[in-house]
Write a structure and sequence with these properties.
This protein is of the alpha/beta class. Helices cover about 35% and strands about 25% of the residues. The strands form three sheets. Strands 2, 3, 4, 5, 10, 14, 15, 16 and 17 form a nine-stranded mixed sheet that branches. Strands 1, 6, 7, 8 and 9 form a five-stranded antiparallel sheet that branches. The protein is globular and about 65 Å long. The structure holds S-adenosylmethionine (SAM). The site of S-adenosylmethionine has 16 residues, from loops.
Amino acid sequence: MSELAEKIRSVIGTKGVVSFARFMELALYAPMLGYYEREAQRVGRAGDFYTSVSVGSLFGELLAFQFAEWLEADVHGKHQLVEAGAHDGKLAADILGHLQKFRPQLFEQVEYCILEPSFARQKWQRETLSSFAGKVKWFDSLATLPSVRGLVFSNELLDAFPVHRIGWDATAQQWFEWGVRWENERFVWARMAEPEAKAVRGQTLQVPRELRAVLPDGFTTEISPVAAEWWSAAANKIESGRLLAIDYGLRAEEFYAPNRANGTLRAYAKHRVCDDPLANPGEQDLTASANFTVLQVMGELAGLKSEPLATQSQFLTRIFGNTIPAKERFAEWSSVRTRQFQTLTHPEHLGRPFRVLVQSR
Ligand SMILES: C[S@@+](CC[C@H](N)C(=O)[O-])C[C@H]1O[C@@H](n2cnc3c(N)ncnc32)[C@H](O)[C@@H]1O
């Protein structure tokens, strides 16, 4: 058994069961052992899955172009660009590289901050960004980040936050929570006698009444209070500017579509979806769709104004359109960039499943 599986077993301990959220947190982030804590190649061709960043530098260049337009429209001198979930620092390098070349004045003024709780990941980021030493500052959490004039953004951060997996008991007309047990030498699903998620304990999860009546027994979905809290805390950091997330995600009602009766939780290894999210903890990525409705509400409660939710395709195509008349501020549209653009925006690739939420103050 792997060291991480041993650790999860010891956390399950005598209680006999842990919530899936705790299992996922350990599987992905247990110090030195979790999936995102070890220096293996996770993202890209040699890894387990692609992100828009691993497609090439175009994604960062387009974002940098848009960020610069937003920041330059604000007359205040110093700005911060805050990236969360920077992983190996590649997106930061693409953005900073573009700004340095095409917006040298803004590049001088901007402070690039990375929110990174893990020291292992901070180390990889420092290596990738060595040519920008002195330009980038690290913060280990939102709590230590000063208030922001500019932008807080992330790519595929919120869909990597731990989720509680919950099920519908049609007879009792109640939600219950799925936990994880160790049985016959493997981790297995087990209904929790005492749910951990507050919304399940208090049965406060909002489900439209007409849906409640037809929701099949055992209907499964996920909730991520950690993602909601993170978004709320980030929103409260914005003194002026924007909060932006690009994520695999859905509106609240879309979680209840019949084809999602088993939820949105997925495990990936070597570019394949794996059947069992509980198998091989630390060796496969675990992810679940972000709930954009919840994030939007959290941001609005913190006083932010929402822009209409866009698909990645719509968002990047709009930026592309703005680069055309601004030739001196964008790299040449070579065949390599054009191919990357197609992958980033094509509905069958990354264009439709990824959505972009922008809120501002
Ligand atoms: C799916 S990866 C995305 C990586 C990168 N943004 C990209 O697009 O290629 C998710 C990243 O979020 C990081 N992460 C998870 N929780 C975080 C938190 N609370 N603050 C900052 N980063 C976090 C993970 O360690 C991982 O590097």
